[in-house]
Amino acid sequence: MLELLPTVLPRLLQALPATLIYWFVPSVLALILGTLLCIARVGRKGVIYWVCTVVISFFRGTPGIVQLYLVFFGLPKLFALIGADIEDWQAGAFFIIATTLNLSCFVCEALRGGYLAVDRGQIETGLSLGYNRWQNFVHVIAPQTLRVSLLNLKNLEIAVMKDTSIAYVIGAACILGTAKTIISAQYGVGQLAILGIAGVCYFVLCAVLEAAFGAASHRLARHERKAVA
Amino acid sequence: MELDYDFMIADLPTVFAGLPNTLLLTAWSLLFAVTLALTLGTVILTGVPVLTQVVIALNTFIKGVPLAVQLLFCYYGMPLLCRWLDGLGVYHHDPRHIPYFWAAVAALACNFGAYLTDVVVSSVRAIDHGQIECAHALGMTRWQTIRRVIVPQGAVIALPGFTNYVIWLLKGTALASLINVSELLIAAQLSAADGYEYLEAYIDAALIYWAVCAGLECAMTKLERRVGTYRRQDVRQAAAISAHGADADDTSSGPSIPSTEPISAVRGATFAHDRAETPTPQPIGA
């Protein structure tokens, strides 16, 4: 393993920017989309509610890899309907779209769990203090929801980081895809060691995320610590 | 949208024929994962000096590495293992028939065994310690305490987390298509290859996965309600939620049983996939 390290690791790290993009872009988009879905899901049970519920159920009930294939093969056909040709988009774009859709639904449920845990009295107090609905959301609901949801969001972000490893099935660059390329170029010599190195790369990325979220949840819980002291 | 609906309907039985393999893969992986989780969980809970640290390190590492990497690792490692076993004379190695199914089982079992270990550990730790003290006071032996007090209560607490992972595992078996293990997604791929009608076949596959997962979730929710009825705390929380005008029937977002410790409280449990337990609401400044 060690003699492979100097040649393999730099090549694997070439895929690092792509991996980070495939993690970061869906994360940001899913947070926005997930919030919107969540608002629909905690509100009145109208048409929008049921549409969202079905969509969320679909994305939570099917494997991510199937969704990836569906987006990869289905989206060009869908766009062809409106006359747009997206066949020549990069594979990475399809991966980002598929991951965003998938992650949004999970983020929505995570946020919804957090929202339901917010004490009703807090919301009423905010309104009685003269906050309008938007101020109430920003200053009262969002921080408390986020604090409760953070553990779930951390799990999701780590899962997304790990799921970037399947981007290679549609031809997008990723660490695992690079590892597979190296393995086949070497006719399988040292395949287990190369995969091991790729695994360690992912592990390090996840460990960094874990630490970052640990710091964030520490910060979001600061009000309660003061209250205890 | 331009879809070959005739092919989609005609292909449904072909794709469906892959479902037994997927379920078989899930069942075997689950069996080994649970065995692994109970063993490793026991090690962590008893706190055997060196072994505990080794188990926690291993657990953390497995959870930090993607399932796809583990599957490929087992895929590439399987022929080597077979050859080695052949050398020992316990297995007849045939290079044309390498049991890749068991490679997938090994990878899935290790992966989900690691997550389920957390479920086991946090569920047992969530049992009221007074219960265990009580059992001791009543003169129960260690084994009796485990059998009569810890297992029945821990199992109920573990059920929501366990359900989540069973569904997660079922979806994870789709990744076994990466190493050409015959299952639902491979069945879809093979059936689509002739006419290059991948989208239709994948829609079929997605619908089947969706139906199975939804059915499983529904069944497990019913089971949770049934075995969890004796837990008053549970009933209280359900009442609290319904009082807030929210639907309490969804266990997928906020679990109905609040007493599993947050995973951050479990020693050494990182990269946990556990759902954040929604704590009982408490006003700031309490």
From TrEMBL, chain A:
InterPro entries named among the record's database cross-references: AA_ABC_transptr_permease_3TM, ArtM/GltK/GlnP/TcyL/YhdX-like, MetI-like, MetI-like_sf
Transmembrane segments: 20-40, 47-72, 92-111, 166-187, 193-216
UniProt cross-references to PROSITE patterns, sorted A to Z: ABC_TM1
SUPFAM superfamilies, alphabetized: MetI-like (SSF161098)
Pfam families linked to this entry: BPD_transp_1
Keyword terms, alphabetized: Amino-acid transport, Cell membrane, Membrane, Transmembrane, Transmembrane helix, Transport
Span of domain ABC transmembrane type-1: 16-213
Ion transport listed as a keyword: no
Gene Ontology molecular function: transmembrane transporter activity
Location of the protein in the cell: Cell membrane
Membrane-topology descriptor: Multi-pass membrane protein
Superkingdom per UniProt: Bacteria
Annotated GO CC locations: ATP-binding cassette (ABC) transporter complex
Gene3D superfamilies the record matches: MetI-like
A GO biological process held by the record: amino acid transport
NCBIfam families xref list: HEQRo_perm_3TM
Family: Belongs to the binding-protein-dependent transport system permease family.
Full protein name: ABC transporter permease
Native organism: Bifidobacterium criceti
Lineage: Bacteria, Bacillati, Actinomycetota, Actinomycetes, Bifidobacteriales
TrEMBL record, chain B:
Pfam families the record matches: BPD_transp_1 (PF00528)
Gene3D superfamilies for this protein: MetI-like (1.10.3720.10)
Main subcellular location: membrane
Chain segments carrying region Disordered: 242-262
InterPro entries: AA_ABC_transptr_permease_3TM, ArtM/GltK/GlnP/TcyL/YhdX-like, MetI-like, MetI-like_sf
Name the UniProt record assigns to this protein: ABC transporter permease
Cellular component aspect of the GO annotation: ATP-binding cassette (ABC) transporter complex
GO biological process assignments: amino acid transport
Biased composition (Polar residues): 251-262
Transmembrane feature ranges: 25-48, 60-78, 98-116
All copies of domain ABC transmembrane type-1, residue ranges: 19-220
GO molecular function: transmembrane transporter activity
Localization per record: Cell membrane
Lipid bilayer topology: Multi-pass membrane protein
PANTHER family xrefs: L-CYSTINE TRANSPORT SYSTEM PERMEASE PROTEIN TCYL (PTHR30614:SF0), MEMBRANE COMPONENT OF AMINO ACID ABC TRANSPORTER (PTHR30614)
Keyword vocabulary terms for this entry: Amino-acid transport, Cell membrane, Membrane, Transmembrane, Transmembrane helix, Transport
PROSITE patterns: ABC_TM1
UniProt family annotation: Belongs to the binding-protein-dependent transport system permease family.
